[in-house]
Amino acid sequence: MKNIILLVIVLLSVATVATAQKFEGIATYKTDRKVDLDMEGDGMNDAMKEQIAAQLRKQFQKEYTLTFNKDESIYEEVESLDAPAPQTAGGISIVVSGGADVLYRNLPQKEYANETEISGKVFLIKDALEKPAWILEKETRNIGDYTCFKATKSREVTEKQMTSESDSLIEVTKLVTTTAWYTLDLPVQHGPDTYWGLPGLILQVEDGDLTILCSKIVLNPKEEVTIEVPKKGKKVTQAEFDEIQEKKTKEMMERFQSDGRKNGDGNNFSIKIGG
């Protein structure tokens, strides 16, 4: 009888350890981006600017899932069947190009793979992970049922902007602070998009004009989660991809300048974002 009781205790202990070791889930995030247009041109009135801003903001409101376990994660966009963006008064149309990224991270191996697209061509970026230099703050806030702690980091960003005076591109450097809110209740170093490396799952990010907010978390779902490394696309390093992207951006801006000169009457505008 004692042996039977001992066996039951051992089995229960094994089951408890196995359950404790299993930690996986699916977090859903929604993105939003503030749009602050500073556009000058013949026929560009306030009502038209507001219509452009509304279209742009809708294009950036998307939903993503982060599937994770203790070691790995994959972040990808939830497919949707949105209607094409309508033209506004004056012939203004908004086109946001580029395919949906699939971002995979492996923490023990300190590497990531990002399947992305430029001008219809698919690339697979594979490179080493560099842990972000977060500063842990004391401030807290509640997001849903989770108590979250604040973390920040800053970086210099150089952007190319079109000047209306000279019709040319200039480089503008500014300091951008990223704020992340993470919860110790979910002790994994994952987070949405490129944000990770904190003592708990990141539930909210505020980065410049971009906001990412977690709307739902399912822990240890009945069906075991699957995390597959992206494999499609031309393999490049992050530095190689950045160089290609810079070249494509320059070509796009040159086309934009050329189209602007062709449509000098100011009655038609076309805004294109992406490769």
List keywords for this structure.
275 residues, alpha+beta, two-stranded parallel ribbon, 22% helix, globular
Write a structural description.
It is a single chain. The protein has three helices and 14 strands. Strand 2 and strand 3 form a beta hairpin. By secondary structure, it is an alpha+beta fold. The chain has one domain (23-273). The strands form two sheets. Strands 8-9-10-11-12-1-2-3-5-6-7-13 form a twelve-stranded mixed beta sheet, sandwiched between helices. Strands 4-14 form a two-stranded parallel ribbon.
**What's the overall geometry?**
globular
The whole-angstrom Rg is 23 Å
Question: Could you state the order of secondary-structure elements as H and E?
Answer: HEHEEEEEEEEEEEEHE
How many helices? The count is 3
Query: In what range is the share of β-strand residues?
Result: 35-45%
Residue stretches low in confidence (pLDDT < 50, at least 5 long) are 4-20, 265-275
SSE layout and pairings?
Elements: H1 2-21, E1 25-33, H2 46-60, E2 63-68, E3 72-77, E4 93-96, E5 102-106, E6 111-118, E7 121-128, E8 135-143, E9 146-163, E10 168-183, E11 201-207, E12 210-219, E13 234-236, H3 238-262, E14 270-273
Parallel strand pairs: 4-14, 7-13
Antiparallel strand pairs: 1-2, 1-12, 2-3, 3-5, 5-6, 6-7, 8-9, 9-10, 10-11, 11-12
